[in-house]
Amino acid sequence: MPNERPTYTVLIASYLEPGHVERIRAVDERLRVVYTPELLPQPRYPADHVGKVEPRTPEQEAAWRALLAKADILFDFDYTNLTDLPDLAPNVRWIQASSAGIGQLVHRMGYAERMPNTVITTAGGVHARPLSEFVIMVMLMFSRHIFRIQEQQARKHWERLAGTDLAGRTLGIIGMGHIGVDVARMSRPFGLRIVGTKRQIDGIDPRSLSLDELYSPPDLDKVLRQAEFLVLCAPHTYETENLIAARELALMPKGAVLINIARGAEINEPDMIEALRSGHLGGAALDVFAEEPLPASSPLWDMPNVLVSPHSASTSDRENERLTNLFCANLRRFLNGEPLNNILDPERLY
Which residue among the candidates 107, 144, 185, 311 is catalytic per the annotation? Predict the structure, then answer.
């Protein structure tokens, strides 16, 4: 009929709890939501969107590819067919990713060129709270000497010691996006002095970002010289590759703590290891690495002033709830012809 509204097939491409699937179905009757968990990699932990990949039978693979061919919207990338996705899903108009840092993946796969009519949106903001709590945990751990306390406990050794307070210390944040802003907001009650960098700063009041001072990337040195705690939150782009190396580390105050919740490629690991060994860098809390999983041969595993986190600072058992909230809001915008939230810029890679 001429007045009939179009319908859209939504294919959920990574594991999602049934209750969240029903929430997506309830958004609008124009959506045909397809969810076949028996064809998806099974999660190894809550909100695992890559999953444990088990080979499909030929019949299962054929069934899955038939679903891809009919899909108009994808919830997440198909991690089992990343290379062939543009060919297998030619009708897809929009992909909602489950991760915020997808720029490099999209670039490697050439999706912008191979899927020119497909909008890709990120999960920006979904992981801000758990990452911010990780940063708070790390600052408290180092200020209260938790590594030394654990070492003494392991030896059954009683020796009193004095930590320090966070109040009055300076926190530097590289990258004031969703995560950086949340880190600053949650750090404010501890009395920290907070400075940060953002690509565009014209007309922005630092106080609106919970900052005391805001700098553009060319003024990074001004942040480094002040930062007793330095948090990397910036996306992995051409500009942030190898952003922190020997020169930058030397500018930081002696004893400063480096926290990386961005991407491993943003730090020169050999230079960081040398700064840790020399004592100039007081410690590091690393959730991401140049090579993942971190090789057993890496000296970072055994360094007494390093926290090795297996790229898990952002994960939470509440992640799928937040992802579904974002996806449902974007579905409504899509159906209403409104611009989607978190559209990936393939040139900037975020």
Answer: 311
Q: What is the DSSP string of 292-348?
A: SSPPTT-GGGG-TTEEE--S-TT--TTHHHHHHHHHHHHHHHHHTTPPPTTB--TTT
Spatial distance between the Cα atoms of 74 and 124, rounded to a whole number of angstroms = 17
| Amino acid residing at 151 | E
113: annotated active-site residue: no
Contact present, 172 and 196 (Cβ < 8 Å): yes
List the structure tokens of 150: 């654990």
**Rounded to an integer, what distance in angstroms lies between the CA atom of residue 10 and that of residue 12?**
6
Residue 294, amino acid: L
Residue 325, burial from CB neighbour count under 10 angstroms (0-12, 13-18, 19+): middle
pLDDT of residue 221: 98
How many Å apart are CA 124 and CA 295, to the nearest integer?
29
Buried b (16+ CB within 10 A) or exposed e, 201-237: beeeebeebbbbbbbebeebebbbebbbbbbbbbbbb
Tell which phi-psi region holds residue 279, choosing left (phi > 0), alpha (psi between -120 and 50) or beta: left
Does residue 131 contact residue 316 with C-beta atoms inside 8 Å?
no
CA nearest to 99, candidates 348, 345, 342, 346: 342
The predicted structure's pLDDT at residue 3:
60
Structure tokens at 69: 């061919």
Q: Look up residue 182 and give its amino acid.
A: D
Task: Report yes or no: 272 and 299 within 8 Å, Cβ to Cβ.
Answer: no
pLDDT averaged over consecutive 10-residue blocks of the chain (350 residues)? 80 98 98 98 96 94 98 98 98 98 97 98 98 98 97 98 97 98 98 97 98 98 98 96 98 98 98 98 98 98 98 97 98 98 96
Residue 292 is among the residues annotated as catalytic for this protein: yes
Q: Which residue in 22, 292, 338, 347 is the catalytic one? A: 292
Active site residue 263: yes
